[in-house]
Specification:
4 domains; 24 strands
Length: about 350
């Protein structure tokens, strides 16, 4: 009850103060000033809008009537940027009231050369001028030429390839680069289509990757070429490095029938880095140390430096213990039967 009385008292007090202010001499002077201020502002605005100004506007561009057997591989510009000059009142009408209709290009109206169509200002400028007031001057249009390239159904499937650089964080590595889809359909005029073997991605630069990454990557835009789809999903599986050691025997190759390789030791320890997910899959049978007879003859010493030509996939940072082995080429007798 007490709170309600306080609220009523406060309301009545504020109402009286507002009423007294509105009926006071100061209030009348304030409203007279405000009235003349708005009148002066209105005159100033009308005077300002009566001057000539330049302004930029955009008009949409649409291509219609494309036959079913035609693929537009490079679209025309989606809009025309026009610069016009007129009185401020007219430009204000363009900004606030008038909306521009699209410039319609009918496919059947234009003939191309080598699957390329160029439409010059003289062929579409009238469609712009028809939407402007008679007093409006068209100063410029950009682009000043509309063009598009088409293919009459010629296409082929090409693989996707990465363009860019990828690097994993410390102690991690990228076990693969997977694209989905890994191939895309490419449409282009026949002469251009014959030169396309792969679809490259837009340049990609990713560093210090420490977790499996999925990313949508657009394909590189080429004039007169359309890829379907125009972007692909790239997955970068990331694995952590671990170290493993296996024992691998040295095997002689291309030795004459009466000679054999004797190596000391006959096996070496191969230590390497491999992703944790492949640790159990990689074993000694995946490594082959072949020593050719011809190579040993060229050495001129009895020490052979161990090396492997082909490493299993996912293996890196390989080292041998020992790095060199002693060897001799032993003559063996051939036992021929009767």
């Amino acid at each position: 009850m007490f709170e309600r009385r306080n609220i009523q008292r406060t309301y009545l007090k504020i109402s009286r103060e507002v009423k007294d202010f509105l009926l006071s001499d100061k209030s009348r002077e304030f409203f007279i000033f405000l009235f003349f201020f708005f009148v002066a502002g209105g005159f100033w605005l009308l005077q300002t809008l009566n001057n000539d100004y330049e302004a930029d506007f955009s008009i949409p561009v649409r291509l219609k009537g494309v036959p079913n057997n035609v693929v537009i591989t490079s679209e025309p510009a989606s809009e025309l940027r026009i610069k016009v000059k007129d009185k401020g009142t007219v430009l204000l009408n363009y900004m606030l009231g008038k909306s521009f209709y699209p410039v319609i290009l009918d496919y059947a109206d234009y003939k191309g050369v080598d699957n390329q169509v160029r439409i010059y200002p003289s062929q579409f400028e009238k469609k712009v001028l028809n939407q402007l007031n008679a007093s409006t001057r068209l100063l410029s249009m950009k682009p000043d030429t509309l063009e598009y390239i088409y293919s009459t159904g010629a296409s082929k499937l090409v693989p996707v390839k990465l363009r860019g650089t990828l690097s994993a964080g410390r102690e991690y590595y990228l076990s693969d680069t997977i694209f989905s889809p890994d191939s895309v359909l490419v449409y282009a005029p026949q002469g251009v289509l014959d030169t396309i073997a792969v679809a490259y991605t837009q340049p990609v630069k990713l560093e210090d990757i420490s977790d499996t990454l999925r990313q949508q990557v657009p394909l590189r835009i080429q004039k007169g070429v359309k890829f379907v789809p125009s972007s692909i999903e790239m997955m970068l599986p990331v694995d952590i490095y671990t170290e493993k050691t296996v024992e691998v025997p040295l095997r002689g190759v291309n030795f004459p029938a009466d000679k054999v390789l004797r190596a000391f030791p006959s096996k070496v320890q191969v230590t390497f880095q491999v992703g944790l997910s492949h640790f159990r899959q990689i074993n000694a049978d995946d490594f082959h140390i072949y020593v050719s007879y011809e190579e040993l003859l060229r050495l001129g010493s009895d020490k052979y430096t161990v090396k492997i030509k082909n490493l299993p996939k996912g293996v890196s940072q390989v080292r041998f213990n020992p790095a060199q082995v002693d060897f001799l080429i032993e003559q063996v007798s051939l036992d021929y039967g009767d």
